[in-house]
Amino acid sequence: MISFQQILFLITILVAGYFFFRRVLQIRKNILMGQDEDRTDQPTKRWKSMLLVAFGQKKMFKKPIPAFLHLLIYIGFIVINIEGIEFFLDGIFGKHRMIARLLQRLDLTIFYSITLNIFEFLALAVILSCVFFLIRRNVYKIKRFDGVEMSRWPKLDANLILIFEIILMFAIMTMNATDQILQERNVVGFPNTGLMIISEIFASPFYRPFNTELVLAIERIAWWAHIIGIFSFAIYVTYSKHLHTFMAFPNTYYSNLEPFGKIKNMPEVTREVNMMLGIAQVESPTNSETVRSLGAKDIKDLSWKNLMDAYTCTECGRCTAQCPANQTGKLLSPRKIMMDTRDRMEELGDLLAKSGKEATDGKSLLGDYISKEEIFACTSCNACVEACPVTIDPLSIILQMRRYMSMEESSAPQEWNAMFSNIETSFSPWKFPPSERFKWADEFTKEN
Ligand code: SF4
Ligand code: SF4
């Protein structure tokens, strides 16, 4: 007969699954609001980039100590959650430690014991690493964690996730410690797991004086806390900057494989210029080209990859710390560009979901979230792209907005407009025709 715990477990899975997949579909829909862009070429290079950058965390190791601790949290979290397989089986079948029982029957308890001890060691490493990051963030106040964009929710989010991970790890330790005590007291339903060293040292002495009923209750509470914690964590992550733990993989796979300095030409403009130069035949633009704006003003003008970048941003600030414009006191912060893009995408996605595909709110990414001053402060140096540990390209968004301002609104700074018209009329940024390019050399020769 199906037990109360099994019913509760099934309800928990269904509710968590519903909220998780609903959010995943929403994120997918939001990313697909962007323009089409082909990123399917060179699959071997793409797999390599994903394995090195996302899986191997190659770009993180510029600072070895935080990088190592970050890796510990990452590996710890993935490996420990393998234990979730047993939780899942136990929850569905209403048993306790099904895999331990199976291995006990096969006389292989030692494997179970070794695996659990590895999990416990990693759980302890995760706790210590999270404490280190909490201190670094809140006590030492590292400069790159600061900035106008890092107030309120982003700041809280960064702390919450670390606290969340510590609680989850404590739940595992508590569960194992109390389990061990129940095994010692020969309570029915608790198979032999072998010694769990870390919980035996740190947690068991604390619970050992309690009577068996209380220890049993604590063990069940810790089990449920861990299960509910994992499900809540999975949902919470989809609303948090920690979405990068999943998004880093597709994002690095679809990263830009062109050299950093290569700026993509707009086909519409290239054709126009070629027609002016007589290289291409005069032809009318196709319908899609007539509708498309030059550059980007809002979310739908950006590509799906720009939008995926925004969901992948870890808000680490490495880009902003390297940005020469930011370092010299300008308003621009490439991290803010990514965070603003994500916030506006969420806002627009919600609006379209509620009010239909064509709904508008009169707002736009450029203007309401990102100012012209920020966009024009960019030197196009690519330092932010180079610094990003998950191969995000804030410059691509900046350039598209700059194009919009220059080509659709003609609102580029006066000096730029003068340069543009010089290029158009004199084929050079200055007011002189190419024929006068070597005039200085002639004058120099005459004088000498
Ligand atoms: S490309 Fe622009 S945003 Fe990026 S680091 Fe350079 S100046 Fe800053
Ligand atoms: S764009 Fe990259 S470097 Fe910048 S904050 Fe986001 S993840 Fe960090």
| Outline type | elongated
Low-confidence stretches: none
Mean pLDDT: 88
Query: What count of structural domains?
Result: 2
Distance between the termini: 106 Å
Give Rg in angstroms. 29 Å
Number of strands: 0
Helix content: 55-70%
* Percentage of residues in strands: under 5%
The distinct ligands, each listed once, are: iron/sulfur cluster
Largest beta-sheet characterization: none
What is the helix tally?
23
* Helical/strand content category: mainly alpha
Query: Order of SSEs, N→C?
Result: HHHHHHHHHHHHHHHHHHHHHHH
Task: Describe the structure concisely for a colleague.
The chain is 65% helix and 0% strand.
Features:
448 residues; mainly alpha; Fumarate Reductase Iron-sulfur Protein, Chain B, domain 2; 2 domains; 23 helices; 65% helix; 0% strand; binds iron/sulfur cluster
Structure description:
With 448 residues, the protein is an all-alpha fold. It has two domains: 4-31 and 63-253; 275-434, Fumarate Reductase Iron-sulfur Protein, Chain B, domain 2 (Orthogonal Bundle). The chain has helices at residues 4-31, 43-55, 64-80, 83-93, 98-105, 109-138, 152-184, 197-202, 204-207, 212-237, 244-253, 267-276, 287-291, 304-312, 318-322, 324-327, 334-355, 365-369, 372-376, 383-387, 394-408, 414-426, 439-447. It is elongated and about 105 Å long. The termini are far apart. It binds iron/sulfur cluster (SF4) (2 copies). One iron/sulfur cluster is lined by residues 322-325, 332, 334, 378-384, 394-395, 398.
Secondary structure layout plus pairing:
Layout (H helix, E strand, L loop, with lengths): L3 H28 L11 H13 L8 H17 L2 H11 L4 H8 L3 H30 L13 H33 L12 H6 L1 H4 L4 H26 L6 H10 L13 H10 L10 H5 L12 H9 L5 H5 L1 H4 L6 H22 L9 H5 L2 H5 L6 H5 L6 H15 L5 H13 L12 H9 L1
Bound molecules: iron/sulfur cluster (SF4) (2 copies).
The site of one iron/sulfur cluster has 16 residues, from helix 16, helix 20 and helix 21.
